Amino acid sequence: MENELDVLRRWAAGPQPRALRASIVLEASLGRNNAEIARRLGASRQTVVTWRQRYAAEGPAGLDGRWRSGRPALVDEGEVVAESLLAPPDQRSSRSLGRRLGCSHTAVAAARRRWNLGRDELAAPAPPLNPPLGEGGIWVVGLLHEPAHTLVLLAQRTGSRPEPALIEIQPPADALAAVTTAFTRALAAPAAPFASPAVVAAFLAAARRAHPRASLHLVVLRGPAAPDFAEQCARAKVTAHQPPEHTGTVSFLRAVLALDAAQHPSSSARVLLDLATALRGPGTVRWIREPLPAAPGERPSGAAGPLHADGPLHAAMNAGGAGANQIDLGSFNECVVIETVRLAGAITRGDIAARTRLTQQSVSRITRSLLERGLLVEDRKRQSAGKPSGLVRLRDDAAHAMGIHIDPEVLTAVVVDLSGRIVARRVEKITPEQRPGAVVAQIAVLGESVLAGVGRQVRESSFLGLGVAVPGPVDTVSGTVLDPPLMSVLRDVPLRTLLERRFSCPILVEKDSIAAAVGERWIGRDRRSRDFVYLYLGTGVGTGLILNGDIYRGLTANAGEFGQLCAVVLGRVEPSGRPEVLPECNPASHVLVPDAAARRTQLSVHQAARAIGRGTLAVIDLLDVGLVVVGGPFCTGPAAEVYLTEIERAVNDFPTARRLRRVHVERSVSTHEAAAVGAASTLFHASFTPRLRRPGSP
C-alpha cells in the first residue's frame, strides 16, 4: 500500500488532470468525506465520488483517462511538435497530424504557431517558455533528473551557423524513442527529496565550463526549485524558465530533443543514445553534453595567432570556411565530367561524351566553364579525322587540402594538391601527455606549422579545408572520437569542435581506414576505378570499402572493423563473449625474423599475415570483390611481401567462389602517409565526386 501512496503523491505533484484525481484519493485516505474533499480541492461532489469509485475498483490504473469519442479538451503541444518533426515531409500538414493524434487540425496549427514551427522550414523554432527565449536555435545540453525533480538545460548562441531547413534533417526516431522510454521509466522510480543545493550548483558550474560561449537556459520541468535556486542560476549566468502550458513532462523533453536534432546535424543519434544510457543508470542523472561545434571564425582566447599574416592562405583560414565555396560545382553533370577526366588523366571532349553518354553540346559547355574557372587545362592538340582535338586534364593546383592522421604513436600532417602530390609534410611523435587537451593542442600546432610552411604555393581560392583521419570508432556527424582501443586519451573527445576553434575552415573527421581507401581511389585514378577492399596496416588493422563506385561508410560511418571480424573468423573471444583484440592485428608488435627469445614473446610477421589473410578471406566471401589493396605505414620493406603473399594465398585458395574469380592483391599507391593523404582526399571526394545512386534507392 505504501508504494501506491508514493505513486499517488507523485501524480498529485504532476500535470492535470491526473493530479486532481490522485489528490482526491489521497484526501480520502486521510478519512475526509466527499463534501470536505470537494471543498478543499475545488471540485464537484460528483467528480469526487466518480474517482473514488474508479480507484476502489481498479486501483491507480483507474485514475488514467479513458478514450471517448469526440475531440480531447486539451492537446499535448510537445507531442504535436515531436510528431511534426518525425513525420515524413508529405505527412506534416495539420490535418494529417490531427488525424494521427486524434485532435482537430486547428489545435495542431495553434500548437505549432506557439512553438514557432512552420510546416516546411523556419529559422528559429523554440518552446514557448516563461520568460520567453531570445532569437536563435536551441540545443539540449544538460539534464539533472531525480524521481521528483527534473531540470533541462538549453543553450542558444549568437553567430551560429545558418541552420538547414527542418525538412532536410530527419531526427533519429529510434534514438529519440530510446530516450523517451528511459525517461518514462525513470519518472516511475520511487520519489526522493530534491537534490542538495550543492548538486545543482555543481551541475550548473560544469555546464558553464563545457559551454562558455552559449546563452544557457534552465527549464524547471518538474518539482519545486531549491531555496537558493535563483542565486545559483545568477552565479552560473543561467536564465531560469518555467515549461510551457499544455505540455507534459515526457513530451517536452521529446519535443526539444527533436527540435535540436532537426536543426543541428551535430545532434546525432549518439548524443541521444548517450542521454538514454545516462537515464537508465541508478540514482541521480547528471548529464552534460560535449562542447558544441564552433561558430564560424570562433577562436578561443588562448588560440595561436595568425598562421602567416601576410599570405593569402591566412585569409582563407580565417574567412569562416569560405574557402570551400570558392569552387562551386553547378550540377551533377559537372561532377561526372570531372570524374571522367580524373580517371582518364587526359581525354578529348569526344571521348568524354562517349564515356558519359552526355551530348557533345553539353560536354563542350561544361568543359568550357571548367576551363574558364581554372579546374581544367587544355594540353597539346591531337589530330582526329583531320580536325585538331584538344586533350583536357585536371589542373593539379586547382584545389588543395590538408590532411592530418592521428595514430597512437605518431602524428602526420600533409598538404596535397588535386593530383594527390604532397606539397608539404611533417611527422612527429605524439605527446606522451595523457590529457586530451595536450594532444589536441599538439595536433593544432602541427597543422598550423605545415600551413605556414606552404606559404604562397597554395592560393586562397584553391584551399578546400582540413581532413582528419582518426582511429575508429568515430561519430563523423559531430566529429567525436569515441572508443579507440589503442588511444584512450581521445575517448569521447569532440575533436572537430576543438579544432574548429583553431582553424576557421571546413573540417571533416573520418575513420583512418576509410580515409585511406578514399585517398587510394582518388590518387589511383583508373587503376582504382573498380570496387576494391583497402586493407590498412597501421598500429591497428582496418578496412575501407569502395563499392558501387563510392566509399561505403555504413550506417554510422564505421564500416570496416577488421579486427573484430578477424577475431570472429579465428574463434578468438574473451570470456564475456566479446571478440578479442588480436595482437595479430597490431603490425607494430611483429618481428620479421625473431630470435629464440623473441619467438617466445612476440608474434612473427608470418603468423600475423596468416591471421590477417583469414580475416580478408571472410571479407572477400562476403562482398565478392576482385581486388584487395594493402597499404599503410607497416606495409613497407620485406614485411610487405610477406603480407601480400599470405593474403593472396588466402583469398584465392579458400573462398567458396574461387572457381569463378581470381582476386588480385596489390600494394597501395600511397606509402607511410596513406591515411593523411586520404584525409585530405576526403575534401576532394566530397567536392568533386558525383554522388552515385545506390541500388534500391529512389
UniProtKB/TrEMBL annotation:
Alphabetical list of CDD domains matching this protein: ASKHA_ATPase_ROK (cd23763)
Name listed for the protein in its UniProt record: ROK family protein
Protein family according to the UniProt entry: Belongs to the ROK (NagC/XylR) family.
Record PANTHER family: BIFUNCTIONAL UDP-N-ACETYLGLUCOSAMINE 2-EPIMERASE_N-ACETYLMANNOSAMINE KINASE, ROK (REPRESSOR, ORF, KINASE) FAMILY
Superkingdom in the source lineage: Bacteria
Entry-linked Gene3D superfamilies: 3.30.420.40, Winged helix-like DNA-binding domain superfamily/Winged helix DNA-binding domain
